[in-house]
User: Fold these one by one.
Assistant:
Number 1:
Amino acid sequence: MTTANPETPSEPISKAVRGRQSRAREEELLVWPDLVFIEFICAVLFTVLILILAVMVDSILLDRANPAVTPNPSKAPWYFLNLQELLLHMHPALAGVIVPTVALIALGAIPYFDNSNDGQGEWLSTPRAWLNLWVGAFVGFFGTLLLIFYDASKHVQVFEMIANGSLSAKAPPPPSALQYSEALASSGKTVPEGLQAIVSGGNELVQPTDTVPSEFYSQSFWNGQNGFTAWPEQLEFLTTLRGIQTGIPWPEWTKEIPLGNVLRTDLFGFPRIELNVDVPALIVEQIIPVTAMVGLPVLLAVVASKLGIAKTKRDHMIMQFSGFIAVYVVLTIIGTYFRGVGLELEPYTIFAHP
Amino acid sequence: MASNERPQRASVGDRLYDLAFQNRVWRSIFRSGYPNTPRNQMLAVATNVFLHLHPTRIHRTHVKITHTFCLGGLSFFLFLGLTITGVLLMFYYVPSVERAYQDVLALETDVRFGQLMRNMHRWMAHGMVLTVIMHMMRVFYTGAYKPPREFNWVVGVVLLVLTLLLSFTGYLLPWDQLALWAITVGTNMVGSAPLLGEPNRFVLVGGYQVGQAALIRFYTLHVIGLPLLAAVFMMVHFWRIRRDGGLARPL
């Protein structure tokens, strides 16, 4: 009954034949007019669009360059603001050079890692492509935001907001020496001798009405006196990444471990590099950022493959690439619109520039 | 049909057509004749130096706008537009710290269409960074980097870097506060590299701080060095697209 169709052979086509793309003439169009005209229309359309944009929006020209006046903030061009944003969180060599170099090499290596022909030539045509795109983009976007919020100690503000039951609750300002010693005395604590001297007028440098000197001042005690629950001092090292360096009583010797003249760069005409290892700085500026930048994508890949979200190399590539693009976008947006004076995390536009 | 086998007399339209497209001058410029038949259309593409970047035929899925969004072509179009507006801007701009800022001010106020040229150049530059990044995303999500196109993806990554560098070198040229400090921040990042960072920064800036030496270096790179390099890589990029059989297709 069924006659063999000559165009669909029952035998599977051999791999060698399948490797070459079929050239079905009836599937092809003539470049003139079908492609050339599209290109022409596209070029005309964009010429007009750019003309309209150029007529309507003038490019910025600030005051003449002056090396003596540093604007605050000073920002790189927008496509490098993601690197400048990284600069706030890690060692400059890492943020400025090593991360972009590694990222570019990884980008160039994608086809050598994912070398199957699955999903070639069609938008996201492999089975789990869209899922992996959204998972990668979502985790990249919100993960990066969370890390930035952590380093801007936003979680401290959230804690204080919840603990004090009010968005506007603010820590009381440091009191004068007189107020502080009275508070100490009334709560049954001993007033340090130096503070007594100030209150009695015996110290010529600090008046009783001046702000209490920091060596006598305990913020958590004063906050407690005023009914304000601040971030606990024992958890100071959790406020920001820097907090690990400053909030933990590191022994002095860990901050300068000499390794001798390991790098004899003087042989090449450069200054000799004396290697001293500052352990807290090393941990904060290099080990933790590298662990986060390498470990979190790896963790995502492992979790995704355990959950069955990403199975093939193409799945993993889509997830990591989407994550990379999301991180690039979120760092660029934060760097452009949310880094103000002193590169603090706050809304900012270039038009507010002095 | 049979009644019409004898050739008809040429109409007025045929005569006009011959007059316009079959004369010696036209044929000396365009050898293929006016592309009104499939044969002439293919000849027009194959024999024209500008059009012969294309094949004569193309798979029907590749002319769908939503397949490529024309992003690669747009990047090249913006590159050409930047070259044209850039050459016009070069007529009025002298890369010296005494004159650069004055020249840009004069361009905006004294030169007819000067502000328009500068605006177009700037917006096209920002646009090109965007289209190149989006083109990379298109190629990735359509799986077009897969064998045999691996190396063309690498060439594309090099072109992305060159685009960023072209934009970055151009950023300094207006010599205003934005330019100076953006380049200072950017070059300081280079200087933070271990060991070779500081010497590299010195070579790039031509001194310890961004000044005349940096301006002339960035200018030279911006108007000749990097565009030439980008053109070479673009040649390779386009050539390999043709060699690999056009855009990627499902097997």
Number 2:
Amino acid sequence: MAEPLLRVESLSKAYGGVQAVKDVSFTLVPGEILALIGPNGAGKSTCFNMVNGQIEPSGGRIFIDGQDTAGMSPRQIWRLGVGRTFQVAAVFSSMTVRENVQMALLSHENRTNVFWRQARQMESGKADEILELIGMASHADRPCAEMAYGDVKRLELAIALANDPKLLLMDEPAAGMAPRERVELMALTGRIARERNIGVLFTEHDMDVVFAHADRLMVLNRGELIAEGDPEEVRHNPQVRATYLGEGLVYDQAKTKVTT
Amino acid sequence: MSLYVVQFLAGLANAASLFLAASGLSLIFGVTRIVNFAHGAFYMLGAYMAFTLTRTLDGAVGFWAAILIAAAVVAVMGALLEMVLLRRIYQAPELFQLLATFGVTLMVEDIVLLVWGPEDLVGPRAPGLEGAILVMGRPLPTYDILLIALGPIVLLGLWLLMHRTRWGVLVRAATQDRDMVAALGVNQKWLFTGVFTLGIFLAALGGALQIPRTAVSHHMDLSIIVEVFVITVIGGLGSITGAFLAAILVSLLNAFGILIFPSISLVLIFLCMAVVLVIRPWGFLGKPVVAGHKSAGVTVRPWQPWSREARIGAAIVVAIAALLPFWLGTYGLFVGAEMMIAVIFAVSLQFLMSTGGLDSFGHAAYFGLGAYGAAMAVKWLGAPMEAALLIAPLTGLVGALVFGWFCVRLSGVYFAMLTLAFAQILWSIAFQWVPVTGGDNGILGVWPSGWASSPATYYWLTLAVAVFSVAALRMLVFSPFGYALRGVRDSTLRASAIGFSRQRVQYAAFAVAGAFAGLAGALFAFLKGSIFPDALSIPQSVDGLVMVLLGGIATVSGSVVGAIVYTAASIWLMSQTDLSRLVLGGLIVVLVVAFPKGIVGSISDLVGGPLFRRRGAGPAGREAAVAGSEGA
């Protein structure tokens, strides 16, 4: 079998005595959309930040395109072709929408060490193409600081696409957006991912978004992978149901008490 | 051997006052997140107040009562300051907090001068502790033994206060999560006031306890604040135990440094600080302070290069400036050249602060390095002015490369304190290393080459260099490198996710700013014909900060206007009053509290904001918005 795009092997992270992520392994192939779900505190973001290089794992290994990323910083991992969006959107707020995308493009081409040419005239055509793709062409000249949060989230996707990524990491891409925007954003992401054969790993709390767009789901609880499979399998997994709806122990006990 | 033992004990005694001041600073920072620059001023006030009170209160009881009353009185002043000023700026960017408290320092300096006069005052010995005991055959003042004991006692007292009282628990809780403490119904206002008062009490006590040992002078404030900054950087901001350990370390280094390098003992502390920072960037017991770092340079409207109209406007202004020698006399041209030098210095600092979000409190270091580099090239190598003007940016650059390597590892207040400490170390080297730098007498006879020696030609030279500097730095701001620098400032997270290295970008910016500051310093040396340690001093750094603030921190090159206005105002002020520091300090406080956008920032807000803005109205509307923000 060919090397998958992303291979995670028994990944762990401990903070002091707290085991935030325990022995998580999974793979992701190009063009696949993989959702990582779980209740708050399940270790989703920690997992993400380890793949992205922001947090150093306490154990386990991560391979991107066959390359072991141990000890690599986020910017080195980005150079392997990994685009990233954040749970709380992070963009350059003192720049316009287009300039944000231009910066990612310039960095991709290693041209940020240029000291004389005007940056805003460099790569503007390519930036506009990406913005067009995301449906933000009309916003290109707007200052980021005055944009609605939903638009900022979309801009993050545009920035993440600038380095022709093989892998997109999206931490709650739809958080803070209106319901309709969410569906549109994920539909767009799905379309681009399939067209360009990009692997997408995302976390999300909105189950409509997850079940509509993910090819495969992984469920984390207390740092452990408790289920994995296509949406239908996961939906019917008893352990997942217990995690999300509770096991009914307290409820049952209370009921028993009342009846006796 | 005995000499070393006595030096060791003297060092420990010295540590007591340093620890008192540093623990107060740490305590205040822990809860309020303000680095109180005025801490040194309160230390000094404590000493002066104790001097006055010990003259009226007699005897052993009177002496110790005087010390405590002095500290208490100063603490009350601190509480008033907290209520009147600091409460207004808790939410402001760190730069403003540092500047406002520095403004208070300046005001206190002149007030002390007014009340106690310019002479050094010698306080009484502590009754009953006038003598000395023999330690291995060498005398050690009994008072020192008391101080050696005092440090651990105060540390223990603070520990008990923090761990065994309800108030202490609240303070510790607030240090970890202020919002949570507020949500639990604790009145934050009074908690902050209480902590600030306690911190000031400790500082004033530290000052008051010094009077039997050293003369009380009005230089105490800046010398102690630099040492305290060094201690808190080494010990870790917010950690009292860290402050204790670092105070001992620094005092011992001082004590032994004097034996080893008598003239440049501070170098030892610098080396020690450098080692600590490389191994533990947040100090012995400190924690990283990254969250909540607010940069002062952020605008809502993205910066734009000048439009054609604005370029023409700027060209006209430069042309008029170039014609000034036909009207102005010698003195006017001298002032004009001084303004141009201020412009170069200010824009180099603005590049660092506004574009880079790096608030340097020690930019004078590179100005002074350039000035001394040029002066020494003339004096020791017999270099002509032209060569010296090339050497100066290089010395500035090299200095910035050496110090910047440490500084860019840190951010926020740590960065500010470290830059200040480096500048102060250079200042003390220039001051103490007499054979090379001439010490207090400076280096004289640094005159321009023949062709540039007339006031008009020298003015033209400074004008040309200023125009070049502003243009070059503006070009840099709008280049990919400038954007990367701004990107790192806006969001380090995003920047690293698209392949930028924060440290590398900021290091390069630091070097560039240092080179331009060095150029300004060289022009300054040739203008005055001499150079003194003042060029490296804290006031020189602060002048630059005020120029940037006055021009507009959120603009690209508003400091050009800030530098010209500030230079004119301070020259005028000097001629009008002896209390220039009082006025300047007041000006800084007012600027920070009431006029934080500065001159150019306010104007471009009016022009680009409510007056002409038609958002999304097609190309015409965009043009108007562009024209508005580009003036910046």
Number 3:
Amino acid sequence: MPVDVFRIDDRLIHGQVVVGWGQPLDIAFVVLVDDAVADSDWEQDLYRMGVPPGMTVSFLSVEGAIAALPALQADARHGLVLTGDIATMQRLAAGAPAVRAVNLGGVHHAPGRTQRLRYVFLSSAEEAALRDMAASGVTITAQDVPASRPVPLEQVLAGTDLS
Amino acid sequence: MSDVSPVRAVVAAHGDVAAGLVSGVEAISGRGSAFIALSNRGLAPADIERAIRETVEGAALEVVFTDLPMGSCAIAARKVQRLRPSLLVVTGVNLATLLDFAMADGVPPREAAERAVQRGKDALAAIIPPHAG
């Protein structure tokens, strides 16, 4: 069973991930790819507390995740790979051909970002990174929870659906 | 005697949950003003953390109630707690918890919150009809 979802979500491990996606997809493992968290025992403990029984979580750097992905793809369980920002997912996708589709799940407001969806705000650099990933063959859609409609990247970037 | 309860805690939760719970406390006890309600709607993690921190510091509060234990509000509150070890973070808040806390006159906020947690746990029950099989 390959990894089911590669998700970008700046809230990292939270309700939408472990409940919203985790339960309907029967996600058994979450891999949080974040160089800072991979280097912080305290943050790992914090996020580990948010994972329900029956779901495991591991914390990897980008390089570590690129090395681990073949084994993750061969895991018999359902899995979700998570990054907290677009740049990290871009680095992961560049080094791991297994990343063929990316779920843009939550990039919230910050200075320099413009709203594109209710839950997606992008800077010009982030827009360029998404376009680069798409140009390399990665399918990118925005979708906060499984019950919502997946929004294709071009529609996200058009910023016409702010409801 | 003042008609307005002094602020004693923050309630931080998803969507309109915090405002709804505080509204419930106000409707039942008239003590909704004991809480400041915060929503995570549309906020980046750093902004949730900042909102909690600034509210706690601004009102010299010692208790933050949050909803989901794995939610972004709880995680943000835990990060604030790391810098303010005197802060008590309560997860899984419900109306019974907040009511008990709001009614605990004269009890220090942290102690009142720890007692209210038990009241909130006790309020959670599956009530089976007496003649169900």
